[in-house]
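Reopening this ticket.

The earlier resolution said the output was attached, but the attachment link was broken on my side. Pasting everything inline this time so it's all in one place.
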Amino acid sequence: MSLGRCLFNALPLKHEREVISMKKKLAVLATENDLLVDLTFHNVPASLLTEFAEKIVMPYYAGNINAAIQDLIHKALAEQDFVLSHITHVRSRNIERLTTALSKIQSEVIKHG
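Inline output:
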C-alpha cells in the first residue's frame, strides 16, 4: 500500500480533491527528496534473524543490517523489473507467432474455400 493511500484512507470523501492534490505533492516530494521511514517487523523468528545476520549481514554488509535490508529491497525491485520486462517480451513474441499462424490458417481457408 502506498504512503499516500495509508495516510489518506481514513479521510471523508468530501475531501477527495484535497487528497488527490496531496498525493501528487507527496509523489513529487518523494521523488525530489526521498522520504526516510522507520520500519518495524513483527513476529520474525529469532532463528531467522540470526541466520540472516550470520549468512548475509555479517559477511556482505559488515554487520550493517540496515544496509543489507535496503540493498536486498533494491535487488528485489530490479529483479521484478527484469521479470516484468521478460514477461512483456515473451507475450509480444507469442502474439507475433499467433498472428502469423492465424494469417497462414486464414490464407489456407481462403484457398480451399
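Reporter confirms the inline version is readable. Residues 1-37 form one domain. The CA atoms of residues 74 and 100 lie 39 Å apart.
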